[in-house]
Amino acid sequence: MSQRRVVITGVGIISALGADRSAFWRALSGGQSGIRPIEAIQPGQLRFQNGAEVRNYNPADYFEAKEAELLDRFAQFGVIAVREAVKDAGICWTGELRERTAIVTGACVGGQGTEDKGFFDVYHEKRNRVHPLTIPRTMANAAASQISMEFGITGPAFTLSTACSSANHAIGHAFWMVRHGMAEMALTGGSEAPFSFGLLKAWEAMRVVSPDTCRPFSKNRRGMILGEGGAMLVLEPLEAAVSRGARIYAEIVGFGMSADAHHITQPSVEGPAKAMREALHDANLNPEDVGYINAHGTGTPANDPAETRAIHLVFGKHVARLAVSSTKSMHGHALGAAGAIEAVATVLALYHGLIPPTANFEEPDPECDLDVVPNYPRQIQVECALSNSFAFGGLNAVLAFRRWNG
Prior knowledge:
By secondary structure, this protein is of the alpha/beta class. It is about 35% helix and about 20% strand. The chain is globular, with a radius of gyration of 20 Å.
């Protein structure tokens, strides 16, 4: 079967940078950070105090009481994001389209808030039972399932969980499904809500979270900052999008994956480099075609130099002409949703002709010798971009996008 070109016609997002696409882009393009003191738990209970939370969130603004009761915070974020994306795409649903639409989501930790409360009730409060909806609220596929029911979609629907690469794996597989005719449309992305006490203590134990803020590629970086939210994209064949007069944000042209086979937490250079090469090969792009990389860029001492070396391996002398920024410096590291949030950032960068910066940058690091677009956005139109996600367990997923010139 011949391959179809696939474009992005709808974008939806809720994150620490705002409750919709417009707010997200305003903050991102202005280099405004959403990292602030954590409000989900009482101050003083953790070694780190800051996070990138969705502020002033009230489920009642989006859901009836029964719906909100059924969905954990992470699943609510996924549903909110897909509603915006579907509306943005202007989809006119038919019975046939509902049967031929795929839903592919990514989630790393699922319903942690619900799980945390359940364990607290059992082990601390000594209660003999937990909330009867604990299982459906905690399952990682809750967002995908709710999306299918809300829109009456009966095509393939599933969730991928590969730690911090979850959303990129989800988007990549959704892209392949549309490209190869397995689906006529895909709703894809990821969502996460990790700000529960138990999970925060687990991250504290790893000693990779910054005590102040996220400074990717900066010499004085001190670690990552956790984030949350949901981001979703509408993917459809180019021919279908053009025929219905849809606005096209960008074309998704490639997807690459690899495994480090190296270490459960320590990054490698070869694995990420392989995933970037695979994405370029899948997209039929040369390294010189790429003008921007939305880096994994966690801000940890180990990750940033490893990613820098991987980029050098793949792009060689072209590195000097590459803009490489980490938007985690603004929206935090949203784990399984990170790739989706960063895919939206990359797509909007291509659409608006503006590269978002690496915020909070203070001091160049010789080990991170990249053009990291420090602190201020750059008005530049690039033709192609990559978005990198590299996960614990050594699982790497890279997406390739092209600016739409139609």
